[in-house]
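fold-stage: in
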Amino acid sequence: MCMSVVCDGRINKSASPHTDTLTVQEPVASLKANKVWGALRGLETFSQLIYQDSYGTFTINEAHIIDSPRFPHRGILIDTSRHYLPIKSILKTLDAMAFNKFNVLHWHIVDDQSFPYQSTTFPELSNKGSYTLSHVYTPNDVSKVIEYARLRGIRVIPEFDTPGHTQSWGKGQKDLLTPCYKGQKQANSAGPINPMLNTTYTFLTMLFKEISKVFPDQLIHLGGDEVEFDCWASNPNIQNFMKKKGFGQDFTKLESFYVQKRGISAQPLFVGFCD
C-alpha cells in the first residue's frame, strides 16, 4: 500500500475534521489523508475490506472510498466508580472504539460509590475511598490508558464530578463534605462538598493541578449535576453563610457560588460542565 499524509499528530478538540481517500485497484492500494488520524481511520477501513476465501487466501475487492466523520465528537462513556473495570477491559474497549472509528473516551473515573483514581498529591482519597486497595488506577495505569488511546486516535476526557457525587471523596479528605444535621444535632452523615470553607478550594486547586498534568487533554469534565440541597439546608453554618452572602434560601445561588470558585480553582484548564 502507498500512503500520503499531511502529518499532524495532535488530538485537538478544535481540529478540523479529517478526510481519507482509499483506492484499491490492482496492482496496488493507495491511501491519501489530510491528517495522520485520517490515515489511521483509512487503514481501519482497509483492514475491514479484507476477507478470507474458502481456500484460505486473503482477498480484497477493488474499491474507491472517500471517508470523513459526520461528527467531530464520537465518544463512549465508561463509569469506573460504580463498576470498577480492570485495565485490560478498558484497553479492549479502546480497541473496539478504534474498530468503529470513535475518538473520545469519556472516563467517569470517580463518584459517590468509589474513588479509584490514585492521586499522588492526596493518596488517602483512593486509600480510603476505593472499593479495595486492589481496585485503583495507579499513575502507570492511567498513563497506559492515555497512550494506548492516543495511538488509536482517541482522546481521554476524565470526569471529576462535584459538588455532588462526592461521598467517596469525603472518606479520604477530612472536612471536605458538609455535615448534615437532624434538628439541632449533627447527624452521622454528610452531603455535598462544603462550599463555605477556604480549605475546600485549596484542596481543589491542588487536585486539579495534578489532574491537568496527568491527563493531557484540554478538557476535564467537572460534572455539577444532581446536587441535593437537603444537607446544606439542614446545616446552621451553611444557613448563616448564605445570609451573609445575601443568598436567602436560594440554594442554586450557593451552588453557583461554588461552581464559580471551583472554576477559578481549576484554571487555567479548559473545563466542561453538566447542567
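fold-stage: in (second)
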Amino acid sequence: MTKTCIFKNLYASLLPKQTKQICQFSTATSRRYSKKNADTKLIETSVRYNGVRIQMPPNKEWSNEQFESELLRLSEGWRERGARSAFLEIPIQMSHVIPVASKYGFQYHHARGQQAVLCKWLVENEENKIPNFSNHTVGVAGACYREDSNELLVVRDKGKFSHWWKFPGGYSDLGEYIGETATREVFEETGVRSEFKSILSFRQHHGVFYDQSDLYYICRLNPLTYELSPCPHEIEDCAWKNINELLNVDNTTPFVKMICRLMQHGQEVGFNEVDISEHDLENWARPGNRMKIFHRDIESHHD
C-alpha cells in the first residue's frame, strides 16, 4: 500500500464525534477507539494504522505550561500502545503553543482555514512514513469543439502569457469532478455553456505553486451556446478559431497543437478512438458513495 493510500485511509477513519468513554471495535480492516477527557484535557482519538489524532477543546484558553503538561501526559501512553504517528490539530488562536510542540519533535504537516496540523513519526529507527499533504494540484481545461465549423474555443489570459492562445481552464475546486471543473471554467472565462464528453489528454509537471507537482487535464466539450462574453478580470480575449489556423500560428502552445491533432484524428476515425470516457461507479470501499472511473471505451475496441 502506498504512503498516500495509507494517509487517506488514516484520515477517512477519524471518528466524527468525541465520546466520554473509550469505545473499541474491530472490523476486517480497522480498529478504532476514542477517548475524551474533561474540558481541561486534550482530546485524543486513535485511528487506523496505529495513528493518534490530538485536538484542543473548543473555547478553552491554554497557557504554554498547561499545553506542555497535557501533551507529555498523552505521549506517555503512545509507546505502550504501539502508536506509530501523531497528528496534532491547533486552532489559529492557539498558535502560541506551536513552539512547545516543536520542542517535542512535532513538525508542520499542513494548514487550512483556521487550523494548523502538526505531525510526528513515533517509531524510532524506522523511516518516517507520513506522506506529504497535497503534493499535487489538479488543473482542468476545456477543448470546446464546434463540429459544424471545425472550430475550437480559445482564450488569451491577461498578464505575461497574454500572447498565447490556449484553452480556458483553471484549478479544480475541492469536491469537484474533472468534467465539472472543465465546464465551469469555460463558462466563467468565456460565457459559453457546454457539456463534458471525455478526457483527451493530461500532463504532469513538477516544481509549480509552492514547489508542488501539477496534473493538468484537457477535456473534450460540446458547446451548448456560442455567444462569447469574456471575463474582464482574467481574459484578454476569446474566440472561436479554426483548427487548421491554430496548427499554423506561432502564438499558441505545443500542447494546444497536439490537442488539435487529436481532434482531427477523432473526426477522421471516430472519437471513441481518442476519448478517455467517464464512468460512474459505486465506491466499494465506502458503500453508498459514488466515484468516477476514466478509461477507453472497451466495447468499441472489441467490435
